Amino acid sequence: MQATVARRAMFNAAHRLHVAAWSDEKNKEAFGPCNNANYHGHNYALTAKVTGDIDPVTGYVIDIKTLKDIIETEVVQRYDHRNLNLDCPDFVSKNPTAENIAVAIYGHIKKHLPPNLTLTITLHETDRNYVEYNGN
Ligand code: NI
Predict the structure, then answer these.
(1) Alpha carbon 118 to chain centroid distance?
(2) SS3 state at 136
(3) Going residue by residue through the chain (136 aa), what tens digit of pLDDT does each one get?
(4) Domains delineated in the chain
């Protein structure tokens, strides 16, 4: 019997989407306002979903407090109120798009979970735009 446990968290961060090898014109064309040289911010909303068997003794897939603590340490403390391009090694050589942030978050959380549990990351960059990543 499987179930999915989910925990939401928010963080605020600045970023700029930019490919150094491209001209200013090409960057502007590809990334629009997200290429702004002086960066801009988003209120990111993360949902981490953990799926697995319900433990017959505890009744848990995972203790939600454990998941909460992992997210706090690995995501919120790492990214909240940071400039993703300048402050975060994850994005030194990678554009901090919602896709790449979701993949990075997946890695940071997954390494703390028992291998039998699967993880899906949903990352909202705005109310209307979000990305999902499940390790594939
Ligand atoms: Ni942006």
Answers:
(1) 16
(2) coil
(3) 999 999 999 999 999 999 999 999 999 999 999 999 999 999 999 999 999 999 999 999 999 999 999 999 999 999 999 999 999 999 999 999 999 999 999 999 999 999 999 999 999 999 999 999 999 9
(4) 2-133 (3.30.479.10)
Both tokens of 132, joined, read 């999902």
SS3 content of the chain, % helix, strand, coil (to 5): 35, 30, 35
Can you give the pTM of this predicted structure? Answer: 0.96
Per-chain residues with Cβ under 5 A from ion ligand 1: 34
Alpha carbon of 26 to ligand 1 centroid (Å): 17
Distance CA 115, CA 119 (A): 10
Burial 94-126 (b: 16+ CB within 10 A, else e): ebbbbebbbbbbbebbbeebeeebebbbbbbbe
Active site residues per annotation: 34, 81, 125
